[in-house]
Amino acid sequence: MFYENLRDNTAGSLITKFGRDATLRKQTNAYDPTTGLATNSNSDTAVKILTLPMSKARDTFSEELVATFDQFVIMSAQQTAAAGVALATNDIVLIGSEVTRVVAFTPVEPAGIAVIYKIGLARA
Fold it and tell me: Count of domains in the chain?
């Protein structure tokens, strides 16, 4: 309960107040062997993010990995938890008209409860 409160009422509310709108897009691909057709579908979740200086990414990720990032952001886990969505590498993050993809992420998850995600993004 403590970490859910930290996620929703502390980190989540601060990122909501000071962050900017973004959309987390999960893409799923399915193949129907009967018809031989592949279908793609998107599922979008509204999220809030804070953009941080790239120098802060070096505190979390290796220099080689940071070199592949175009942006370093923190995302609240509040909206993903409410939507039942798990962040994954190669997910799409739409920031305004900019399309980026998750290159790497690290959840801050004391006691297994994700509070925030530190995310390296690259242009898609």
Answer: 1
